[in-house]
Specification:
heterodimer, A: 169 residues, alpha+beta, Protein Transport Mog1p, Chain A, 5 helices, 31% strand, B: 340 residues, alpha/beta, Rossmann fold, 10-stranded mixed beta sheet, two-stranded antiparallel sheet, 31% helix, globular, disordered N terminus
């Protein structure tokens, strides 16, 4: 009896979850099973607990007119989390999940490189003083810092490698 | 004026009716004694002031508040030909009005209207006699305001910082038709505020080409995504043509301190630069025309295609000036640009 009740609740929860995702939404999660390394995983980086996820049809709520380009390239969702580097510099990490690797490549190559470094990360990467962009399979990762700081660029690369490992799982 | 969030529906409809009269006269619906914008139909030139300070940031990543105040004052005093920094605001607003400052915060802390500029505006508004509780700084969502550094507050005795998504706000039930799209407008615009000062930020936009004053109104309605097709044209112009927007619009104070020249409107540091400016105008079309030139100049400096070559020219600007919209002028011969 208890078992069937639990199973019923589980089924209901599953259906509601499916409906929630099908409707398109922004949802928040403090779960650690995400693309995002936790605070202790990369030296000098602290992660804020909240992870926000926007489905394709709510993408413009997050990135306004940028959304159209991602939709054309087959975006499914974006998850975003905030970090602090050495407790000071605020950084946002976005992980876009595309339908396939071609979509991630299309977005990556649509932006001018503007004297970027090209570190060995993912399938391709661009590194700037205050931002890092890379793609790996169907994922496109964008990291932006809101302040400049010595060693920030290298530190973002370290965080990028940690994100890449999460994507590989 | 009342201090409550909700104005009566009767007040709202009355405002619309007054707006219709004003629109019929081919004018922005400014209060008669506060008309500062030359008519789109008149021969008078639209003034746009661009004030800049190369030392605005110094060695810091944030602009210096005292310098921002001086920069704003310089821009406003030159626009209004005023000997002191408070008189311009007395010309713009009545002390009893609820004044809305529509900021742009979608790009987060890197590329949103700077709180320090808003603080400078609020300082002068209060000196002009506007009560703190009658100043409402607003945008689409509380979350975006918070992330951009604005201290959320709905305390009626203090300057308010609220998003349309606040429980007590939301979108008006009235459905407007903007071109071919139906839309609803924030109650902060339609009911809470008597007038709106548009406080956008200078940005490139991958679809619209340029986003400044006119495009900032995409944060006023409930479905901006429905207005993005065809490079946001005529979506931007059609939206700005709606009576409540024209009724409440009073002036533009644009943040051009940090701007972006490519891959906007999101914040991508490699495409951002410190322009160190504040731009002011009463004509949103004229100031957007100047914004286009500024962004093109920076793109040329960085070796990028023009927006026309890139296929993202802000063609909505010309549409906003056309005889069907008459929201201002994009004619260079009718724009008086003052760089100070």
């Amino acid at each position: 009896m208890t078992h069937s009740l639990s199973r019923g609740r589980f089924t209901t929860a599953l259906l509601l979850s499916s409906l929630f995702l099908a409707c398109g939404c922004q949802h928040r999660s403090a779960a650690s099973t995400t693309f995002f390394p936790e605070s202790a995983e990369v030296p000098d980086w602290t992660k804020a607990p909240e992870v926000r996820t926007f489905s394709a049809d709510k993408l413009s709520d997050y990135i306004d007119g940028d959304a159209e380009k991602y939709l054309k390239a087959g975006v499914r969702s974006v998850s975003t989390a905030d970090y602090r580097f050495k407790g000071q510099v605020q950084v946002t990490v976005d992980v876009y999940t595309m339908s396939n690797a071609d979509g991630a490549k299309a977005i990556f190559e649509s932006e001018p490189a503007m004297d970027a470094k090209t570190p060995a990360l993912g399938d391709a990467a661009w590194l700037y003083a205050q931002s890092l962009i890379f793609r790996k399979g169907p994922y496109l990762v964008r990291m932006v810092a809101y302040q400049d700081s010595p060693q920030l660029s290298e530190a973002m690369l370290s965080l990028g490698h940690a994100v890449e490992r999460k994507l590989s799982r | 004026m009342n201090n409550n969030y909700e104005k009566s529906r009767r007040d709202f409809l009355r405002d619309c009716a007054l707006g219709a009269l004003a629109a019929g006269a081919g004018r922005f619906a400014f209060a008669a004694d506060r008309s500062v914008n030359p008519s789109a139909a008149s021969a008078e030139r639209s003034k746009v002031v661009v004030a800049r300070d190369a030392s605005l940031y110094g060695a810091s990543s944030t602009p210096d508040s005292a310098r921002v105040q001086k920069l704003l004052d310089r821009a406003m005093q030159d626009f209004f030909e005023s000997p002191d920094p408070v008189s311009p605001w007395k010309k713009l607003v009545h002390p009893d009005e609820v004044v809305g400052l529509k900021v742009n915060t979608i790009a987060g802390p890197g590329l949103s209207t700077h709180p320090v500029l808003v603080a400078a505006i609020c300082e002068r508004l209060q000196q002009a006699g506007v009560k703190p509780g009658n100043i409402v700084v607003w945008d689409r969502t509380n979350e975006e305001l918070d992330r951009a550094g604005f201290p959320l507050s709905s305390d009626p005795n203090r300057i308010r910082f609220v998003g349309t998504d606040s429980k007590e706000i939301g979108y008006d039930d009235t459905v407007f038709t903007a071109g071919s799209v139906q839309t609803r407008l924030s109650k902060l615009l339609t009911r809470t505020c008597d007038c709106m000062i548009n406080v956008p930020i200078l940005k490139h936009h991958v679809m619209a080409g340029v986003t400044l004053a006119l495009k900032n109104m995409y944060g006023v309605n409930n479905n901006p995504n429905k207005f993005h097709s065809n490079n946001c044209c005529p979506g931007v112009a059609d939206l700005n043509l709606l009576l409540p927007i024209r009724n409440k619009f009073r002036f533009v104070v644009a943040d051009a301190m940090t701007a972006c020249f490519a891959e906007g409107p999101g914040y991508k540091p490699q495409f951002a630069w410190k322009y160190n400016g504040v731009m002011v105008a009463s004509d949103p079309v004229a100031i957007d025309s100047i914004a286009w030139k500024i962004i093109e100049s920076k793109r040329a400096e960085r070796g990028l295609n023009t927006l026309v070559q890139a296929g993202t020219a802000p063609k909505y600007i010309a549409v906003a000036a056309d005889p069907q919209h008459r929201l201002g002028t994009d004619d260079p011969n009718r724009i008086h640009l003052m760089e100070v």
